[in-house]
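Per reviewer request, we include the raw input and output of the structure prediction for the construct analysed in the revised manuscript.
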Amino acid sequence: MTTKKKRTRSVHNDSWVVIAAESVIDTQKDDSDPAFVRLRNPSTDEASLYMLSSGDVQLFEVKAFEEDFHSWFVGQTVQRDGRLLFVTPMDPLYLILPHLIKCGKEGKFQPVDQVVMDEDFPACSRLLSCTRSLASLHHIAEEKEVGNQKFHRYSQDKTMNWLKKKVERTVTALKKRHISVGEGVKSSTYVRVKSESDCQEEDYLRYAHGLVSEYISEDLSRALLRHLQLPELTSPKETEPPSKKRKLSDKPVEAGEDYTKFNSADFARKPPKKMTTAQKTLAKVDKSGMKPMSSFFSPKVKAEKQ
């Protein structure tokens, strides 16, 4: 079930239109309201908008659907920000993982509350309050308990296995919903151009790997690709030397060599015709001192009268 919810954003009574599950605003277990928070995106390393539910129990990612020249009517007012925000659940381990990797370089077991810290994004410590956070740390870190306190250290092997399971579950969900993937799908319209039986397992793995990679760093994405035993794909155009690249444009190409002839409508790559015996004989004749044929057909110049 979805609900539209207004959130005051500034003193100008601006608001956002949000579609979210009712569990996001469920305050039965806690009196606090859900809150938008700025956290470091695990993929881009830049600030992104997220939402924490009441009591910081659940983390949600916020996706915006935006169109030009779009607005909302909210009650008797006009909302200038025409974006439509979608709030969906997200595994908090994705955001905790970069902190563990950074501290894992020291090779020490540390309390997790001393690991998940960021001066630029102080709200990141609230991730540890999520229900799935502490209970799921063993998927990406080694644990050691001393007394009543637990210490953790990043584990590359555990993380790869955890991400592999994420990919496999995504593949299962794609097949269950009969979503076509691979080269047989036109990405612009999601039109299937070949039967589902033609889609190989590798197509699903690559597609799912791409979805999971939106929540991890580029280095981790490449490591996961190797863990899935999938070779990296390279575009043939990217491997060509710069001097051989040609823009797909009607305009002349700015390059070190003259490629403007390839943009001419009259240009055609035809094989050279073979010369006849007469043409070969004529080519061997010494033409020095001979007038060109065109001179016999040029207009005569009239002499001026004195």
